Amino acid sequence: MAPSLGEAHSSMKVPQNAAWWKKFLAFVGPGYLVAVGYMDPGNWATDIAGGSQFGYTLLSVILISNLMAVVLQSLAGKLGIVTGRDLAQACRERFSMPVVMVLWILCELAIAATDLAEVIGSAIALKLLFNIPMLYGVIITAVDVLVILLLQNKGFRALESLVIVLMATIALCFGIDLFLAKPDMGGVMHGFVPSAEILQNPAMLYIAIGIIGATVMPHNLYLHSSIVQTRQIEKTTKGKKEAILYSTMDSTIALTLALFINAAILIVSAAVFHSAGMTQVAEITDAYHLLTPLLGTTIASILFAVALLASGQNSTLTGTLSGQIVMEGFLNIRIPAWLRRLVTRLIAIIPAVIVTAIAGEHGTEELLILSQVVLSLQLPFAVIPLIMFTNDKKSMGAFANKLWLKIISWIIAGVIVVLNVYLIIQTILLF
Protein backbone atom coordinates (compact mmCIF):
# COMPACT_ATOMS: atom_id res chain seq x y z
CA MET A 1 0.00 0.00 0.00
CA ALA A 2 1.42 3.37 -1.06
CA PRO A 3 1.96 5.87 1.78
CA SER A 4 -0.59 8.66 2.25
CA LEU A 5 0.53 12.22 1.47
CA GLY A 6 2.84 10.65 -1.13
CA GLU A 7 4.14 14.06 -2.25
CA ALA A 8 5.57 14.72 1.23
CA HIS A 9 6.47 11.17 2.36
CA SER A 10 10.14 10.94 3.53
CA SER A 11 10.69 14.37 1.96
CA MET A 12 12.62 15.84 4.90
CA LYS A 13 16.08 14.55 5.74
CA VAL A 14 17.14 13.92 9.32
CA PRO A 15 20.86 14.60 9.89
CA GLN A 16 22.78 11.48 10.92
CA ASN A 17 25.79 11.58 13.28
CA ALA A 18 24.74 15.07 14.42
CA ALA A 19 24.14 16.57 17.88
CA TRP A 20 20.86 15.50 19.50
CA TRP A 21 19.38 19.00 19.29
CA LYS A 22 19.99 19.15 15.54
CA LYS A 23 18.19 15.84 15.12
CA PHE A 24 15.38 17.05 17.36
CA LEU A 25 14.95 20.26 15.31
CA ALA A 26 14.55 18.10 12.19
CA PHE A 27 11.54 16.45 13.87
CA VAL A 28 9.94 19.72 15.04
CA GLY A 29 6.76 20.47 13.10
CA PRO A 30 4.24 17.60 13.07
CA GLY A 31 3.49 18.13 16.77
CA TYR A 32 2.40 21.71 16.08
CA LEU A 33 0.12 20.66 13.23
CA VAL A 34 -1.50 18.24 15.69
CA ALA A 35 -1.64 20.77 18.56
CA VAL A 36 -3.70 23.12 16.37
CA GLY A 37 -6.74 20.86 16.77
CA TYR A 38 -6.51 21.28 20.54
CA MET A 39 -7.17 25.03 20.39
CA ASP A 40 -9.60 25.40 17.47
CA PRO A 41 -12.73 27.62 17.70
CA GLY A 42 -14.69 24.64 19.05
CA ASN A 43 -12.60 24.81 22.23
CA TRP A 44 -13.23 28.52 22.72
CA ALA A 45 -16.94 28.25 23.55
CA THR A 46 -16.39 25.56 26.21
CA ASP A 47 -13.43 27.41 27.76
CA ILE A 48 -15.29 30.75 27.85
CA ALA A 49 -18.40 29.14 29.39
CA GLY A 50 -16.31 27.22 31.94
CA GLY A 51 -14.42 30.32 33.04
CA SER A 52 -17.43 32.64 33.29
CA GLN A 53 -19.61 30.13 35.20
CA PHE A 54 -17.14 28.43 37.51
CA GLY A 55 -14.07 30.64 37.68
CA TYR A 56 -10.75 28.74 37.66
CA THR A 57 -12.18 25.37 38.85
CA LEU A 58 -12.18 23.67 35.42
CA LEU A 59 -8.49 24.36 34.73
CA SER A 60 -7.84 20.87 36.13
CA VAL A 61 -10.06 19.41 33.37
CA ILE A 62 -8.03 21.22 30.69
CA LEU A 63 -4.85 19.81 32.26
CA ILE A 64 -6.19 16.23 32.46
CA SER A 65 -7.55 16.27 28.88
CA ASN A 66 -4.19 17.60 27.69
CA LEU A 67 -2.33 14.76 29.44
CA MET A 68 -4.71 12.30 27.73
CA ALA A 69 -3.89 13.95 24.41
CA VAL A 70 -0.12 13.65 25.03
CA VAL A 71 -0.45 9.86 25.54
CA LEU A 72 -2.75 9.29 22.55
CA GLN A 73 -0.69 11.43 20.16
CA SER A 74 2.52 9.66 21.19
CA LEU A 75 0.82 6.34 20.31
CA ALA A 76 -0.28 7.71 16.93
CA GLY A 77 3.25 8.91 16.14
CA LYS A 78 4.72 5.57 17.19
CA LEU A 79 2.27 3.64 14.97
CA GLY A 80 3.29 5.65 11.91
CA ILE A 81 7.04 5.42 12.56
CA VAL A 82 7.17 1.69 13.39
CA THR A 83 4.71 0.25 10.83
CA GLY A 84 5.01 2.81 8.03
CA ARG A 85 1.20 2.91 8.05
CA ASP A 86 -1.09 5.69 9.23
CA LEU A 87 -4.10 4.83 11.41
CA ALA A 88 -6.51 4.78 8.45
CA GLN A 89 -4.28 2.37 6.49
CA ALA A 90 -3.87 0.14 9.55
CA CYS A 91 -7.68 -0.03 9.89
CA ARG A 92 -8.00 -0.94 6.19
CA GLU A 93 -5.48 -3.77 6.57
CA ARG A 94 -6.91 -5.20 9.80
CA PHE A 95 -10.70 -4.84 9.53
CA SER A 96 -13.31 -6.15 7.10
CA MET A 97 -14.50 -3.84 4.30
CA PRO A 98 -17.94 -3.08 5.89
CA VAL A 99 -16.17 -2.01 9.13
CA VAL A 100 -13.65 0.06 7.15
CA MET A 101 -16.48 1.84 5.29
CA VAL A 102 -18.30 2.66 8.55
CA LEU A 103 -15.07 3.99 10.11
CA TRP A 104 -14.37 6.06 6.99
CA ILE A 105 -17.86 7.62 6.96
CA LEU A 106 -17.64 8.42 10.69
CA CYS A 107 -14.23 9.98 10.18
CA GLU A 108 -15.41 12.10 7.24
CA LEU A 109 -18.30 13.34 9.41
CA ALA A 110 -15.81 14.26 12.17
CA ILE A 111 -13.59 16.16 9.71
CA ALA A 112 -16.64 17.97 8.29
CA ALA A 113 -17.69 18.87 11.85
CA THR A 114 -14.18 20.13 12.62
CA ASP A 115 -14.10 22.17 9.42
CA LEU A 116 -17.53 23.57 10.29
CA ALA A 117 -16.14 24.86 13.60
CA GLU A 118 -13.22 26.45 11.71
CA VAL A 119 -15.50 28.08 9.12
CA ILE A 120 -17.82 29.53 11.80
CA GLY A 121 -14.90 30.62 14.02
CA SER A 122 -13.16 32.41 11.13
CA ALA A 123 -16.45 34.05 10.03
CA ILE A 124 -17.12 35.29 13.60
CA ALA A 125 -13.56 36.72 13.74
CA LEU A 126 -14.01 38.51 10.38
CA LYS A 127 -17.29 40.02 11.63
CA LEU A 128 -15.73 41.18 14.89
CA LEU A 129 -12.63 42.67 13.25
CA PHE A 130 -14.00 44.09 10.00
CA ASN A 131 -17.80 44.01 10.53
CA ILE A 132 -18.18 41.62 7.58
CA PRO A 133 -21.64 39.97 7.75
CA MET A 134 -21.49 36.33 8.87
CA LEU A 135 -22.88 35.03 5.58
CA TYR A 136 -20.12 36.73 3.56
CA GLY A 137 -17.52 35.70 6.13
CA VAL A 138 -18.48 32.04 5.73
CA ILE A 139 -18.14 32.33 1.93
CA ILE A 140 -14.76 34.15 2.21
CA THR A 141 -13.31 31.22 4.16
CA ALA A 142 -13.59 29.10 0.98
CA VAL A 143 -10.51 31.00 -0.28
CA ASP A 144 -8.44 29.16 2.39
CA VAL A 145 -8.25 26.19 0.02
CA LEU A 146 -6.18 28.16 -2.49
CA VAL A 147 -3.76 29.32 0.23
CA ILE A 148 -3.23 25.74 1.44
CA LEU A 149 -2.54 24.49 -2.09
CA LEU A 150 -0.07 27.27 -2.72
CA LEU A 151 1.78 26.47 0.50
CA GLN A 152 1.96 22.73 -0.05
CA ASN A 153 3.58 23.31 -3.42
CA LYS A 154 6.42 25.01 -1.55
CA GLY A 155 7.08 21.89 0.55
CA PHE A 156 5.82 20.49 3.83
CA ARG A 157 8.20 22.61 5.93
CA ALA A 158 6.50 25.80 4.62
CA LEU A 159 3.16 24.47 5.87
CA GLU A 160 4.65 23.63 9.28
CA SER A 161 6.30 27.05 9.53
CA LEU A 162 3.01 28.88 8.88
CA VAL A 163 1.24 26.80 11.53
CA ILE A 164 3.95 27.60 14.11
CA VAL A 165 3.77 31.35 13.28
CA LEU A 166 -0.04 31.33 13.66
CA MET A 167 0.23 29.41 16.96
CA ALA A 168 2.77 31.93 18.24
CA THR A 169 0.34 34.73 17.25
CA ILE A 170 -2.47 33.13 19.30
CA ALA A 171 -0.12 32.61 22.28
CA LEU A 172 1.09 36.25 22.11
CA CYS A 173 -2.47 37.65 21.88
CA PHE A 174 -3.62 35.68 24.91
CA GLY A 175 -0.39 36.39 26.79
CA ILE A 176 -1.19 40.12 26.53
CA ASP A 177 -4.88 39.55 27.40
CA LEU A 178 -3.78 37.56 30.46
CA PHE A 179 -1.55 40.46 31.57
CA LEU A 180 -4.44 42.93 31.11
CA ALA A 181 -6.93 40.67 32.96
CA LYS A 182 -4.70 40.44 36.06
CA PRO A 183 -5.97 37.02 37.22
CA ASP A 184 -5.73 35.84 40.82
CA MET A 185 -2.62 33.63 40.60
CA GLY A 186 -3.53 31.76 43.79
CA GLY A 187 -6.92 30.92 42.28
CA VAL A 188 -5.24 29.83 39.02
CA MET A 189 -2.86 27.46 40.84
CA HIS A 190 -5.73 26.05 42.90
CA GLY A 191 -7.78 25.58 39.70
CA PHE A 192 -5.21 23.12 38.33
CA VAL A 193 -5.89 20.80 41.31
CA PRO A 194 -8.83 18.41 40.55
CA SER A 195 -11.94 19.07 42.64
CA ALA A 196 -14.66 16.58 43.67
CA GLU A 197 -17.19 19.36 43.02
CA ILE A 198 -16.76 18.81 39.26
CA LEU A 199 -18.35 15.35 39.55
CA GLN A 200 -21.02 16.46 42.04
CA ASN A 201 -22.29 19.53 40.16
CA PRO A 202 -24.21 18.46 36.97
CA ALA A 203 -23.77 21.86 35.26
CA MET A 204 -20.03 21.84 35.96
CA LEU A 205 -19.69 18.22 34.81
CA TYR A 206 -21.50 19.01 31.53
CA ILE A 207 -19.04 21.79 30.65
CA ALA A 208 -16.10 19.65 31.85
CA ILE A 209 -17.10 16.88 29.42
CA GLY A 210 -17.53 19.50 26.70
CA ILE A 211 -13.94 20.63 27.31
CA ILE A 212 -12.67 17.03 26.97
CA GLY A 213 -14.84 16.44 23.88
CA ALA A 214 -13.52 19.62 22.26
CA THR A 215 -9.90 18.92 23.25
CA VAL A 216 -9.11 15.35 22.12
CA MET A 217 -9.74 15.37 18.36
CA PRO A 218 -10.23 12.10 16.43
CA HIS A 219 -8.82 13.38 13.12
CA ASN A 220 -5.58 14.37 14.88
CA LEU A 221 -4.76 10.70 15.51
CA TYR A 222 -5.02 9.93 11.78
CA LEU A 223 -3.09 13.11 10.94
CA HIS A 224 -0.20 12.49 13.35
CA SER A 225 0.31 8.86 12.32
CA SER A 226 0.79 10.06 8.73
CA ILE A 227 2.80 13.29 8.99
CA VAL A 228 5.51 11.76 11.22
CA GLN A 229 6.38 9.81 8.05
CA THR A 230 7.44 13.02 6.28
CA ARG A 231 10.82 12.54 8.01
CA GLN A 232 13.42 10.38 6.27
CA ILE A 233 14.62 8.03 9.03
CA GLU A 234 16.76 4.90 9.21
CA LYS A 235 14.48 1.85 9.13
CA THR A 236 16.55 0.12 11.83
CA THR A 237 15.47 -0.49 15.45
CA LYS A 238 17.86 2.29 16.58
CA GLY A 239 16.56 4.69 13.91
CA LYS A 240 12.91 4.04 14.81
CA LYS A 241 13.61 4.34 18.55
CA GLU A 242 15.30 7.71 17.98
CA ALA A 243 12.44 8.89 15.74
CA ILE A 244 9.82 7.91 18.35
CA LEU A 245 11.72 9.81 21.06
CA TYR A 246 12.07 13.05 19.07
CA SER A 247 8.55 12.80 17.65
CA THR A 248 7.11 12.39 21.17
CA MET A 249 9.19 15.33 22.43
CA ASP A 250 7.90 17.46 19.53
CA SER A 251 4.20 16.64 20.14
CA THR A 252 4.50 16.96 23.94
CA ILE A 253 6.09 20.44 23.74
CA ALA A 254 3.52 21.55 21.13
CA LEU A 255 0.62 20.23 23.22
CA THR A 256 2.02 22.06 26.27
CA LEU A 257 1.72 25.29 24.25
CA ALA A 258 -1.86 24.28 23.38
CA LEU A 259 -2.47 23.74 27.11
CA PHE A 260 -1.25 27.29 27.82
CA ILE A 261 -3.59 28.75 25.17
CA ASN A 262 -6.67 26.77 26.30
CA ALA A 263 -5.96 27.60 29.94
CA ALA A 264 -5.44 31.27 29.02
CA ILE A 265 -8.89 31.45 27.36
CA LEU A 266 -10.51 30.05 30.51
CA ILE A 267 -8.39 32.21 32.88
CA VAL A 268 -9.23 35.43 30.97
CA SER A 269 -12.92 34.46 31.05
CA ALA A 270 -12.76 33.70 34.80
CA ALA A 271 -10.75 36.82 35.70
CA VAL A 272 -12.87 39.22 33.62
CA PHE A 273 -16.41 37.78 33.61
CA HIS A 274 -16.74 35.48 36.65
CA SER A 275 -15.12 37.99 39.01
CA ALA A 276 -17.58 40.66 37.75
CA GLY A 277 -20.54 38.37 38.48
CA MET A 278 -21.21 37.73 34.77
CA THR A 279 -21.62 33.95 34.92
CA GLN A 280 -23.67 33.44 31.75
CA VAL A 281 -21.10 34.47 29.12
CA ALA A 282 -20.85 31.44 26.82
CA GLU A 283 -20.73 32.78 23.27
CA ILE A 284 -17.56 33.99 21.53
CA THR A 285 -19.26 37.19 20.29
CA ASP A 286 -20.44 38.14 23.79
CA ALA A 287 -16.94 37.61 25.20
CA TYR A 288 -15.46 39.91 22.53
CA HIS A 289 -17.94 42.74 23.20
CA LEU A 290 -17.58 42.52 26.99
CA LEU A 291 -13.77 42.50 27.18
CA THR A 292 -13.37 46.18 26.25
CA PRO A 293 -15.74 47.74 28.87
CA LEU A 294 -14.57 45.37 31.62
CA LEU A 295 -10.83 45.81 31.00
CA GLY A 296 -11.08 49.45 29.90
CA THR A 297 -9.13 48.99 26.66
CA THR A 298 -10.13 48.03 23.10
CA ILE A 299 -6.79 46.23 22.53
CA ALA A 300 -8.02 43.25 24.59
CA SER A 301 -11.01 42.68 22.29
CA ILE A 302 -8.94 43.18 19.12
CA LEU A 303 -6.29 40.68 20.28
CA PHE A 304 -9.08 38.22 21.17
CA ALA A 305 -10.50 38.44 17.62
CA VAL A 306 -7.06 38.24 15.96
CA ALA A 307 -6.31 35.07 17.98
CA LEU A 308 -9.68 33.61 16.92
CA LEU A 309 -8.95 34.30 13.24
CA ALA A 310 -5.47 32.73 13.54
CA SER A 311 -7.03 29.73 15.31
CA GLY A 312 -9.61 29.23 12.55
CA GLN A 313 -7.03 29.50 9.76
CA ASN A 314 -4.62 27.14 11.51
CA SER A 315 -7.28 24.50 12.08
CA THR A 316 -8.33 24.73 8.43
CA LEU A 317 -4.83 23.73 7.30
CA THR A 318 -4.74 20.59 9.43
CA GLY A 319 -8.38 19.66 8.81
CA THR A 320 -7.92 19.55 5.04
CA LEU A 321 -4.69 17.54 5.39
CA SER A 322 -6.56 15.04 7.60
CA GLY A 323 -9.24 14.74 4.92
CA GLN A 324 -6.67 13.74 2.33
CA ILE A 325 -5.01 11.23 4.69
CA VAL A 326 -8.31 9.60 5.67
CA MET A 327 -9.57 9.22 2.10
CA GLU A 328 -6.27 7.81 0.86
CA GLY A 329 -5.85 5.51 3.87
CA PHE A 330 -9.33 4.02 4.17
CA LEU A 331 -10.22 3.82 0.46
CA ASN A 332 -6.72 3.52 -1.04
CA ILE A 333 -7.67 5.99 -3.78
CA ARG A 334 -5.77 9.05 -4.89
CA ILE A 335 -7.57 12.16 -6.11
CA PRO A 336 -5.97 15.55 -6.84
CA ALA A 337 -5.26 17.49 -3.65
CA TRP A 338 -7.18 20.57 -4.87
CA LEU A 339 -10.33 18.48 -5.48
CA ARG A 340 -10.11 16.79 -2.07
CA ARG A 341 -9.77 20.16 -0.31
CA LEU A 342 -12.59 21.71 -2.30
CA VAL A 343 -14.94 18.84 -1.37
CA THR A 344 -13.95 19.03 2.33
CA ARG A 345 -14.51 22.78 2.44
CA LEU A 346 -17.86 22.66 0.58
CA ILE A 347 -19.19 20.00 3.00
CA ALA A 348 -18.55 22.47 5.85
CA ILE A 349 -19.53 25.69 4.08
CA ILE A 350 -22.92 24.56 2.72
CA PRO A 351 -24.54 23.86 6.16
CA ALA A 352 -22.89 26.99 7.62
CA VAL A 353 -24.29 29.16 4.78
CA ILE A 354 -27.78 27.63 5.13
CA VAL A 355 -27.90 28.04 8.93
CA THR A 356 -26.49 31.60 8.78
CA ALA A 357 -29.03 32.59 6.13
CA ILE A 358 -31.99 31.06 8.01
CA ALA A 359 -31.17 31.33 11.73
CA GLY A 360 -28.67 34.19 11.77
CA GLU A 361 -25.66 34.45 14.08
CA HIS A 362 -27.27 32.71 17.03
CA GLY A 363 -27.85 29.66 14.84
CA THR A 364 -24.15 29.49 13.98
CA GLU A 365 -23.22 29.45 17.69
CA GLU A 366 -25.57 26.46 18.18
CA LEU A 367 -24.05 24.81 15.11
CA LEU A 368 -20.62 25.23 16.74
CA ILE A 369 -21.83 23.26 19.80
CA LEU A 370 -23.41 20.57 17.58
CA SER A 371 -20.12 20.14 15.69
CA GLN A 372 -18.40 19.29 19.01
CA VAL A 373 -21.01 16.62 19.76
CA VAL A 374 -20.39 15.02 16.34
CA LEU A 375 -16.67 14.94 17.19
CA SER A 376 -17.43 13.29 20.54
CA LEU A 377 -19.39 10.56 18.77
CA GLN A 378 -16.47 9.70 16.50
CA LEU A 379 -13.69 9.77 19.11
CA PRO A 380 -13.94 6.17 20.46
CA PHE A 381 -13.84 4.83 16.88
CA ALA A 382 -10.36 6.34 16.45
CA VAL A 383 -8.95 5.83 19.97
CA ILE A 384 -9.84 2.13 20.42
CA PRO A 385 -8.26 0.91 17.11
CA LEU A 386 -5.15 3.01 17.84
CA ILE A 387 -4.66 1.34 21.23
CA MET A 388 -5.36 -2.12 19.75
CA PHE A 389 -2.77 -1.66 17.00
CA THR A 390 -0.02 -0.24 19.25
CA ASN A 391 -0.60 -3.05 21.79
CA ASP A 392 -0.14 -5.71 19.08
CA LYS A 393 3.30 -7.36 19.22
CA LYS A 394 2.82 -8.92 15.78
CA SER A 395 2.85 -5.58 13.97
CA MET A 396 4.78 -3.45 16.51
CA GLY A 397 7.42 -6.01 17.58
CA ALA A 398 9.68 -4.65 20.33
CA PHE A 399 7.84 -1.30 20.12
CA ALA A 400 4.49 -2.72 21.32
CA ASN A 401 3.08 -0.87 24.34
CA LYS A 402 4.46 -1.95 27.70
CA LEU A 403 1.97 -3.16 30.34
CA TRP A 404 1.85 0.20 32.18
CA LEU A 405 1.14 2.03 28.93
CA LYS A 406 -1.56 -0.49 27.99
CA ILE A 407 -3.31 0.11 31.33
CA ILE A 408 -3.08 3.93 31.04
CA SER A 409 -4.29 3.83 27.41
CA TRP A 410 -7.35 1.70 28.17
CA ILE A 411 -8.21 3.86 31.19
CA ILE A 412 -8.09 6.94 28.92
CA ALA A 413 -10.26 5.17 26.32
CA GLY A 414 -12.75 4.16 29.02
CA VAL A 415 -12.96 7.70 30.42
CA ILE A 416 -13.45 9.17 26.93
CA VAL A 417 -16.20 6.68 26.01
CA VAL A 418 -18.15 7.11 29.28
CA LEU A 419 -17.88 10.91 29.31
CA ASN A 420 -18.78 11.28 25.65
CA VAL A 421 -21.85 9.06 26.00
CA TYR A 422 -22.92 11.26 28.93
CA LEU A 423 -22.30 14.43 26.89
CA ILE A 424 -24.37 13.14 23.97
CA ILE A 425 -27.30 12.17 26.22
CA GLN A 426 -27.25 15.57 27.96
CA THR A 427 -27.03 17.43 24.63
CA ILE A 428 -30.03 15.49 23.26
CA LEU A 429 -31.99 16.39 26.41
CA LEU A 430 -31.02 20.07 25.99
CA PHE A 431 -32.23 20.17 22.39
TrEMBL record:
UniProt name for this protein: Divalent metal cation transporter MntH
GO molecular function: cadmium ion transmembrane transporter activity; manganese ion transmembrane transporter activity; metal ion binding; symporter activity
Task of the protein: H(+)-stimulated, divalent metal cation uptake system.
Membrane spanning residue stretches: 20-39, 54-75, 95-114, 134-151, 163-183, 203-223, 244-268, 288-310, 342-361, 367-391, 403-425
GO cellular component, one term: plasma membrane
One Pfam family this sequence matches: Nramp
The UniProt record lists the keyword Transmembrane: yes
Gene: mntH
Keywords for the protein's UniProt record, in alphabetical order: Cell membrane, Ion transport, Membrane, Symport, Transmembrane, Transmembrane helix, Transport
NCBIfam families: nramp, Nramp_1, PRK00701.1
Top-rank taxon: Bacteria
HAMAP family in alphabetical order: NRAMP (MF_00221)
Subcellular compartments: Cell membrane; Membrane
Record carries keyword Hydrolase: no
Membrane topology summary: Multi-pass membrane protein
GO biological process: iron ion transmembrane transport
Record-stated family: Belongs to the NRAMP family.
